[in-house]
């Protein structure tokens, strides 16, 4: 089969953003989907090759698995993924989610497809470059040196041969960073990877250079997209390939070295993954005691960061042994050792909340994770130990109750001494440390078009936290009612309640927030879609001593968006106008925004103002694609 080259050029003129008003953080920049475009028959082949454990491993509920397997037994292999629309438990969103996860797992396991049904093999290449903040040239015009101007440049080149081979190079200069550093003629961030998935039985995958790992439920290491709270029960199950190349622009959450994954000789039920990494990381080092006081993870390196930029070598190695004990039972043993040449600074008495923080030069962690399917019930979990004394546990269950109700339960316990810079398990905070909680989610199909989804999360921090001098607790509840008509409209109403203990003005209390959201998606024409959202949020404080609730602050966000995408047309575009107003930063409202290529992010809106954002995508030819993004922000009140 022939080869095909695909080049994408990104031309992005950044935004006239007022940073005191809008704060943005990027989602992990990864390529979770392969570059090749597959047809219906290839997607159907993925669904036909997946067995019950494959589907359970990516979070598909047992009732949905049963319906798919029964359909294949009665009517034979699927010819198109659209056949799943006939099944009560399958809709468009579940089918799309399943295909995405199976494409990832296809790269890991291969699904044992026969050569006659393999996907068309393609050679893909991508090239991306640049964005700029126009404030300096349009409005403010400050006298800044060239290296400190708000110019961001990116270059990414990738050759991909279906899912069997990938070679990539990435360079990035962030805004405010110099073009070069002493003894380094290239920009700050440089990434190179070579990834191979041979079709043999012994060696399944090999990575050289920069790569990512996803082990178990994330108690040891999970890089790329993490787990998050959602009203969909299957979202709490970690999935995806254990080993994959790092091709994004995340400057901290990746490994650099070698990794091999394969089947043990004469043991087809055992798969071994070994990995080793060594790279320089940012570190603030005390010159007197020769200890490490902190490990910054921002990835930004302005001129002032020279003393701590890439100042500490980091060594990491480990292994993961997976045993397929039965078609519906899987056990995995993971071990990992992390070390530094200088010890991490032991916390003093003035910071008691860091009593259990990592100190010394090394850390060793081991875990055992499992996935087990019993009839309609999926059990999954992971138990881990840090340095043999600090435990962590995640245990979950997915089960259908009849044809209309799906239920998910997850319990977690993380010792205050557990946690690491690479651990990323399900949690209320940013890392699995100092937390205990019970999470319950459900989905109830009221009718064919009406669905009710909800979750509730009770959690507590058994040890001290930052800015809080005692253990604390809280809860988070979300309810979503959705109406959906295929290829025409989707409407949902969401209500959320949150409460957490806070310590302000020298007295404990509860910070409570309530928010509601109305979201509408409507197909005006087959090629033009209208999206509308209105959201309000209220944040207040409750003092147990006063037995009254203080006056709260409010926030409101409203946006309108048009999305144009015509089948066969080389041009796609979307334009969004957003209006927002909040009384304080605590009442900020988040909204997902689509960027160019992989530059998608979530923006936190606070203050008062408006934003207009335009993205265009034009396929010039079979090989060339151009994208342009423009964003304007108008501020009327600053917080």
Q: Which geometry do the CA atoms define?
A: globular
* CATH class descriptor of the domain at 197-466: Mainly Beta
Percent helix: under 10%
* Mean pLDDT across all amino acids: 79
Query: Any idea what the radius of gyration is?
Result: 25 Å
Structural class: mainly beta
Determine the CATH topology of the domain at 197-466. Answer: Porin
Distance linking N and C termini: 59 Å
Strand content: over 45%
- How many DSSP H or I helices? 5
Low-confidence stretches: 1-38, 106-126, 134-144
| Main sheet specs | 24 strands, mixed, barrel
| Number of strand segments | 32
Quaternary structure type: single chain
Return the CATH architecture of the domain at 197-466: Beta Barrel
In short:
With 639 residues, the protein is mainly beta. It has 5 helices and 32 strands.
Provide a descriptive summary of the structure in words.
It is a single chain. This protein has a domain at 197-466: Porin. The chain contains 5 helices and 32 strands. It has helices spanning 40-49, 52-57, 62-75, 92-109, 135-138; strands at 7-16, 22-26, 123-128, 131-132, 151-161, 165-173, 189-196, 203-213, 243-245, 255-264, 267-281, 284-286, 291-294, 312-326, 329-344, 360-374, 377-386, 390-401, 405-414, 435-445, 450-461, 472-485, 489-504, 507-525, 528-543, 548-549, 553-565, 571-582, 589-593, 601-605, 608-619, 624-637. The strands form 3 sheets. The protein has a 24-stranded mixed beta barrel. It has a 3-stranded antiparallel beta sheet with strand order 2-30-29, with no helix packed on it. A two-stranded antiparallel ribbon has the order 12-13. It is globular and about 70 Å long. It starts with 6 loop residues before the first strand and ends with a strand. 31% of the residues are buried.
């Amino acid at each position: 089969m022939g080869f095909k080259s695909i080049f994408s050029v990104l031309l992005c003129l950044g935004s006239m953003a007022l940073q005191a008003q809008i704060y943005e953080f990027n989602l992990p920049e990864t390529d979770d989907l392969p570059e090749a475009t597959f047809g219906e028959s290839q997607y159907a082949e993925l669904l036909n090759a997946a067995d019950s454990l494959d589907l359970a491993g990516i979070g598909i509920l047992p009732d949905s698995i049963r319906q798919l397997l029964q359909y294949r037994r009665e009517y034979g292999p699927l010819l198109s993924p659209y056949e799943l629309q006939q099944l009560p438990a399958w809709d468009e969103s579940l089918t799309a989610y399943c295909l995405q996860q199976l494409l990832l797992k296809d790269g890991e396991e291969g699904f044992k497809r026969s050569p006659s049904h393999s996907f068309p093999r393609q050679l893909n290449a991508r090239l991306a470059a640049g964005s700029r903040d126009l404030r300096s040239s349009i409005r403010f015009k400050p006298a800044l040196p060239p290296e400190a101007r708000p110019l961001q440049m990116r270059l990414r080149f990738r050759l991909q041969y279906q899912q069997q081979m990938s070679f990539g190079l990435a360079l990035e200069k962030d805004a405010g960073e110099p073009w070069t550093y002493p003894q380094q003629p290239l920009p700050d961030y440089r990434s190179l990877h070579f990834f191979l998935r041979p079709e043999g039985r012994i060696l399944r995958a090999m990575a050289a250079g920069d790569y990512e790992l996803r082990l178990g439920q994330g108690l040891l290491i999970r890089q790329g997209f993490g787990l998050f709270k959602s009203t969909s029960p299957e979202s709490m199950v970690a999935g995806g390939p254990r080993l994959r190349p790092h091709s994004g622009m995340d400057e901290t959450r990746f490994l650099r070295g070698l990794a091999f994954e394969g089947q043990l000789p004469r043991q087809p039920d055992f798969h071994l993954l070994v990995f080793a990494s060594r790279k320089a990381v940012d570190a603030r080092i005390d010159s007197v005691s020769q200890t490490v006081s902190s490990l910054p993870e921002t990835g930004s390196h302005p001129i002032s960061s020279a003393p701590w930029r890439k100042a500490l070598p980091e060594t990491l190695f480990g292994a993961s042994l997976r045993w397929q004990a039965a078609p519906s039972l899987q056990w995995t043993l993971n071990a990992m050792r992390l070390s530094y040449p200088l010890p991490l600074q032991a916390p003093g008495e003035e910071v008691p909340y860091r009593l259990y923080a990592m100190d010394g030069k090394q850390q060793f962690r081991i875990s055992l994770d499992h996935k087990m399917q019993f009839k309609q019930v999926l059990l999954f979990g992971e138990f881990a130990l840090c340095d043999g004394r600090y435990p962590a546990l995640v245990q979950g269950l997915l089960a259908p109750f009849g044809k209309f109700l799906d239920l998910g339960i997850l319990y977690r316990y993380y010792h205050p001494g557990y946690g690491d810079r690479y651990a990323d398990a399900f949690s209320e905070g940013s890392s699995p440390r100092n937390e205990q909680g019970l999470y319950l989610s459900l989905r109830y199909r009221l009718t064919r078009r009406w669905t009710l989804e909800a979750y509730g999360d009770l959690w507590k921090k058994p040890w001290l936290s930052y800015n809080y001098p005692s253990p604390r607790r809280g809860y988070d509840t979300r309810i979503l009612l959705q109406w959906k008509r295929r290829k025409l409209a989707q409407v949902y109403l969401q209500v959320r309640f949150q409460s957490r203990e806070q310590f302000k003005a020298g007295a404990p209390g509860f910070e409570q927030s309530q928010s509601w959201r109305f979201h509408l998606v409507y197909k005006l024409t087959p090629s033009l879609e209208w999206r509308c959202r209105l959201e309000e949020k209220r944040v207040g404080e409750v003092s147990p001593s006063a037995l009254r609730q203080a006056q709260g602050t409010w926030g409101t966000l409203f946006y309108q968006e048009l999305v144009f995408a015509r089948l066969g047309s080389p041009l796609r575009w979307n334009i969004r106008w957003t209006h927002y107003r909040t009384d304080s930063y605590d009442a900020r409202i988040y909204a997902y925004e689509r960027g160019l290529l992989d530059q998608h992010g979530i923006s936190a809106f606070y203050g008062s103002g408006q934003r207009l954002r335009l993205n265009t995508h034009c396929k010039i030819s079979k090989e060339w694609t151009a994208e342009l993004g423009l964003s304007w922000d108008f501020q009327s009140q600053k917080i």
